[in-house]
Amino acid sequence: MKSFTYERVTSPAQAAAAVAAKPGAKFVAGGTNLLDLMKLQIETPTHLVDVNGIGLDTIEATPQGGLRIGALVRNSDLAAHKAVRRDYGVLSRALLAGASGQLRNMATTAGNLLQRTRCPYFYDTNMPCNKRQPGSGCSAIGGYSRQLAVIGSSDACIATHPSDMAVAMRVLDATVETVRADGATRVIPIADFHRLPEATPHIETQLQPGELITSVTLPAPFGGTHVYRKVRDRASYAFALVSVAAIVQPGGGGRVAVGGVAHKPWRVEAAEAQMPQGAKAVASRLFAGARPTPENAFKLPLAERTLAAALNQARS
Amino acid sequence: MDPNAHFPLSRRELLIAGATSAAATAVPATAHSQPKPPTMTAAAAPLSVRLSVNGAPRQLEVDPRTTLLDALRENMHLTGTKKGCDHGQCGACTVLVNGRRVVSCLSLAVMNEGASVTTIEGLGTPQAPHALQAAFVKHDGYQCGYCTPGQICSAVGVIDEIKRGSPSHVTADLTAQPLLSAEELRERMSGNLCRCGAYSNIVDAITEVAGAKA
């Protein structure tokens, strides 16, 4: 690990100001992704601002009938929260499909959204990677790409976003609330929060330097049957090859998002009109314009079949 | 009588002595080739952190880079907690922080100011083992033993999580009390790898203890 200085802060505004004041500073909350990357010198912050003492660790009902989830609510607490289990089952299921019990006890809601890709070339500091070292090239294109993106990718990057939780947040139309160093707050729809790689894959979200996530808000429950299906190389504790988050209404309509296939949770609202017609119709709209590699082309039929399984599970 | 009394060195002391002699014989070769020293960054000023470890208050001065795992092993000499992968993938370093299981390799010591940490040394002793320690011995829940402290600390957390009604990936009904089945235990313990493959005996050991408590 490269050397860094460290401070604790006691309020969100103080945290944002502390990071904005020092170039190379970063927030640390759970630390499960950041410390891993710091040990490999993929992340080399010069200053860490520990936000664990700023509150933001509760889940509250909103006047609109939804839930406001504090940025520091741990993944295990969010998954086990009574209202989440009852009204937003897809979110509980997605969280419980990710990582391990120990990591879910540490990882936070905001940190989960901000975790970095698990592309093997991002992790290998001996190889070019436009995300780790902008302009150095993409080793994954033409390399080992079995795990990587099939849609929304660019000539600069074919990485995927690794989060399960974010796929559920996308299907639930969550919004991300932030505060900046000057105290200004804003609300970012989850659909816009993560960016596609385009020519700047190192810029992964809409957040500005020093901007801190304070909460993630869910709208009022949609009802329906909630399903999260994840396909991976082992039964537990592995990242998704493909995952499907679905909310299916009694008439067969609903909403669906897919993980493991793109640089962000993949959802095409126009495809959801096809849900009563079945998985094939939905998948053909969802994956129009897909650009798989020879190594990961299997993800397209796998996603369609996972979607079919999710829709069947919802009906049964 | 202590069965180890006739050994002049513990296993750990023997390994340290072996490593020292290996380093000594390696010196002449590196002195001639004069390899470039690894790039180093100047250490930041040490920081003070106060913890309660196994019920005892501790105050440490640590480099900010020091993980909770390294603070336990190197600063406090509590070597029961093991370093496996050091990247949160194997679970060997699992301890309980404020009663919840975490991987101590992915937390900085300074992030745990004021926390209450329980390691394998705090669960029981050879004379008075924790129920899970006794059950792991009874059911042969290990071979080499390296993952065992992490397995046992994790299992303490798992039993508490089931008791509190926290669901898992394999819980059929999210709103019901989770069952204490082998399937549940396998899923909940998936963050603790055992290269020897003692998994079925680990499940038996945890089942016995959790069943007795339920």
What does this structure look like?
- The complex is a heterodimer of chains A (316) and B (214).
- Chain A is an alpha+beta fold and 316 residues long.
- Chain A has twelve helices and eleven strands.
- Chain A is 28% helix and 18% strand.
- In chain A, the strands form three sheets. Chain A has a five-stranded antiparallel sheet. Chain A has a three-stranded parallel sheet with strand order 1-3-2, with helices on one face.
- The longest helix of chain A has 17 residues, at 299-315.
- Chain A is globular.
- Chain A starts with a strand and ends with a helix.
- The model of chain A has no long low-confidence stretch (mean pLDDT 98).
- By secondary structure, chain B is α+β, with helices and mostly antiparallel strands.
- Chain B is built from seven helices and five strands; from the N terminus they run H-E-E-H-E-E-E-H-H-H-H-H.
- Chain B has helices at residues 11-33, 68-75, 120-123, 131-138, 148-163, 182-188, 199-213; strands at residues 47-53, 56-62, 94-97, 100-103, 116-118.
- Chain B has a five-stranded mixed sheet with strand order 2-1-5-3-4, with helices on both faces.
- The longest helix of chain B is centred in the N-terminal third of the chain and has 23 residues, at 11-33.
- Chain B is globular.
Strand and helix map with partners:
The complex is a heterodimer of chains A (316) and B (214).
Chain A: E1 5-8, H1 12-21, E2 25-28, H2 34-39, E3 47-50, E4 59-61, E5 67-70, H3 75-80, H4 82-87, H5 89-96, H6 101-106, H7 109-114, H8 120-123, H9 165-171, E6 175-179, E7 185-189, H10 190-193, E8 212-218, E9 225-231, E10 242-248, E11 254-259, H11 279-286, H12 299-315
Helix pairs in contact in A: 5-9, 11-12
Chain B: H1 11-33, E1 47-53, E2 56-62, H2 68-75, E3 94-97, E4 100-103, E5 116-118, H3 120-123, H4 131-138, H5 148-163, H6 182-188, H7 199-213
Parallel strand pairs in B: 1-5
Antiparallel strand pairs in B: 1-2, 3-4, 3-5
